[in-house]
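Data card: per-record layout.
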Amino acid sequence: MASKTPLTEDQLAEITNILLERKRAIEEELRRNLSRVLEEGGEDTTVVNVEEGGESRVDVGKEMDFQVMSMRTQELRQINEALLRIEMREYGLCEECGSPIRFERLRVMPFAQLCRSCQEELEKEEKERQLALRPAPKE
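The structure for this 139-residue chain is written out next.
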């Protein structure tokens, strides 16, 4: 099968090792956090003033744990997708423009799907979209 990836076998092996190491660390962190959350029950319940005249009991510790676990789960999904792209020999190509993603970028962000210029354009568009959603200042 012809290789579509712009990376050498050594580079792919290095990236694969980085991804697998990070995957193992995240899986272990998720197991530890889930076990801790299940063991602790509702000990971190805090009364929070939700709105004037109302109070709500919020399990602040668990909510933070679940947010962290959600972020880690998303990262794990990105890692698995990168490993699949490596296996399919499609790793290292920008999903937007098809250009090679620099190896240096992939070493730092091994699950990057966009080259630097496409990522910057995406971020610029997102920032413009966010600014457009802001209400106009009152005069």
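Known properties of this structure: Helices lie at 9-40, 60-87, 103-108, 116-133. The beta strands are 45-51, 54-59.

See the next section for split statistics.
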